[in-house]
Amino acid sequence: MPVLEIIGWVGSAVIVWSMMQQRILRLRVINLVGCLIQVVYNGALEVWPVVALNVVLAGVQIFNLYRLLRTRHSPAEYAVLRVDPAGEYLHHLLALHRADIQRFTPSYRQASPHQEAYLIVRGEETVGYVLLHDAGDGVAQVDLDYVIEKYRNFTPGEFVFHSSDVLREAGYRKVVTAPGMREPYYAKIGFSQTGDRYELALTS
Q1: Which of 28, 51, 71 is the last residue of a domain?
Q2: In terms of domains, do 52 and 84 share one?
Q3: Three-state DSSP state, 179
Q4: Which of 2, 52, 86, 187 lies 20 to 30 angstroms, CA to CA, from 98?
Q5: Alpha carbon distance 170, 107 (integer Å)
Q6: 38 and 102 both lie in a single domain
Q7: For each of the chain's 204 residues, which pLDDT tens digit applies?
Q8: Entry's InterPro entries (predicted)?
Q9: Torsion-angle region of residue 120: left (phi > 0), alpha (psi -120 to 50) or beta?
């Protein structure tokens, strides 16, 4: 098989693979790579309409990537809503994501009326939620910090811990995570590791 034909097949395979991704950032990056490969392949064959199509698609992905990365830490894009830990909507989310929750936070069992629950929303979409309880002495103990797979390349939990004032206004001075959480992202948003936990001092 000629090298040029292999390049064409690889480009097509990359685009198909991109459409199978659940994480929005990964989808856009892989799709962009596939479009660029198709630009090279069809340019070599001088199939200019297909080249133009893939140039436009690559431009769309670059624009969307820029917008995603520019707003990933923007409080204007996300809101934090405190909800009833015994509420039906939260329990629906917990049941919906039960298997995934056990994979990332195996120590988590179930919501308790003694916990505090915060939803992280982007527009009309709930992208994650944080459940915690008062451990005393101004310490908020995180019991569950979950983000749906689509937004897992981002760190929306930071809007509970940093960008909103919900925890400081509740009187907390420090946040401590649950032990043994898998694939933790806390070091990226200012937490310090202590054993198998992460801690963050809340500043005014």
Answers
A1: 71
A2: no
A3: coil
A4: 187
A5: 25
A6: no
A7: 689 999 999 999 999 999 999 999 999 999 999 999 999 999 999 999 999 999 999 999 999 999 988 887 777 789 999 999 999 999 999 999 999 999 888 888 888 888 999 999 998 999 999 999 999 999 999 999 999 999 988 888 888 987 668 899 888 999 999 877 766 788 888 899 888 889 999 976
A8: Acyl_CoA_acyltransferase
A9: beta
